[in-house]
Amino acid sequence: MQQAKDTMIAWLRDAHAMEQATVDNQERLVSHLEHYPEIRSRFEQHMQESRMRADKLERHLKDLGADTSTFKEMTTKFASMAQQTITGGSSDEIVKQVVAAAAFEEFELANFKALATAAELNNEPAIKATCDEAVRDQEEMVSWLSQQIPPITREYLLRNEQGRGDAKH
Please, what sign has the CA dihedral across residues 77, 110, 4, 52? Predict the structure, then answer.
């Protein structure tokens, strides 16, 4: 079962890097949401959850005698910055960001489900509990974001029609 444990550790590193990328993304995003206080508040809350989860994942790695992966963290931060470059700065940024966030949350959800299964197989109940909590949090965020896409799109389009667009430049 050593290979299964090694795989679980690699996935823990991936999950830690994902959570770090989420925090980075959310920090950039909330600074652009002054016209959308409800969305901003929920992203700030999710950012805090992600920070706490990243800390838990790092502790799990240390308990297993492993460390975080600088390479994976840099790779996910680069991907996060690329997403921001693609979606950020345009007048329809809010719509693009909510859609991108919903897709990324689905990705995180699937990864935490796989990691929970690996933790269970490796008899790591603390890691499984962290992942099960992450699955619940991700399911809530996915559901919430999915519900936000239509009203945010409407609000953006109405603001744009009324000449109150969201572009920073």
Answer: positive
pTM, two decimal places: 0.83
The two three-digit tokens of residue 19, written as one number: 């959570």
Tell me the domains of the chain and their CATH numbers: 2-161 (1.20.1260.10)
Place of tokens 């430049």: 169
Of 8-22, 86-100, 108-122, least confident by mean pLDDT is 86-100
Query: What distance in Å separates the CA atoms of residue 149 and residue 13, rounded to the nearest whole number?
Result: 31
| 12 CB-contact burial (10 Å; exposed 0-12 / middle 13-18 / buried 19+) | buried
Q: Which distant-in-sequence residues (6+ apart) come within 8 Å of 11 by Cβ?
A: 111, 114, 115, 118
Q: Give the integer Cα–Cα distance in Å for 42 and 118.
A: 30
Whether pLDDT at 31 is above 50: yes
